[in-house]
Amino acid sequence: MKKTGILITLLIAAVFVVSCAKTDMPKTEPANVWNYLQDQNYTDWQLFPGTTELYPGQSPHGAFLTSYINKKAAKSVNNDEFAYGSIIVKENYTPSKKLAAVTVMYKVKGFNPDGGDWYWAKYSPKGDAQAVGKVKGCIQCHSAVKDSDWSYLKSEM
């Protein structure tokens, strides 16, 4: 009976360790990231510090922007770098304030060291992936602020 109790205790401990080690972060695949954002109701996330809803934007993002950050990004926004697992979601609006695209920066350890380990994505308002992964245009543009962990918003803080 003692052996059975010990085995059950070890099994429960192993299940606990595995469940705690699991990450709820999405894999770097377009549908996974989009579905994660929808499941997490990203529009309920905190706005990027210093921004408001529909603040003035510029090309290539849009005339107006709304930028959200997840909890990991919020906790590390004042650090030199964002924590792995940080997500920045930028809604891109037309001059008439119609949602045109949703752009995403998702920091994934080892994903792309030459691009700050950011996974870049652009989606239509319905979630159709338009550009994802190691997006050359995103990396080239954001390299101008790589000292601010590739974030223009962080560089303005």
Global mean pLDDT: 89
Just give the CATH class.
Answer: Alpha Beta
Give the H and E element order: HHEEEHEEEEHH
The tally of domains stands at 1
C-alpha geometry: globular
> Which regions have little confidence, pLDDT < 50, spanning 5+ residues?
5-22
Alpha plus pi helix count? 5
State the CATH topology. Answer: Chalcone isomerase
Structural class: alpha+beta
Q: Can you describe this structure?
A:
The chain is of the alpha+beta class and 157 residues long. The chain contains five helices and seven strands, in the order ααβββαββββαα. The protein has a single domain (26-155), classed as Chalcone isomerase (3-Layer(bba) Sandwich), CATH 3.50.70. Helix content is 30%, strand content 24%. Strands 1, 2, 3, 4, 5, 6 and 7 form a seven-stranded antiparallel sheet that branches.
Secondary-structure blueprint:
Blueprint: H1 2-21, H2 30-39, E1 46-47, E2 55-56, E3 64-69, H3 71-76, E4 87-93, E5 99-107, E6 118-123, E7 129-133, H4 136-142, H5 152-155
Antiparallel strand pairs: 1-3, 2-3, 3-4, 4-5, 5-6, 6-7
Structure keywords:
single chain, 157 residues, alpha+beta, Chalcone isomerase, 5 helices, globular, Cytochrome_P460_sp, Cytochrome P460 domain-containing protein
The gist of it:
InterPro entries: Cytochrome_P460, Cytochrome_P460_sp. The protein has 157 residues and is α+β, with helices and mostly antiparallel strands.
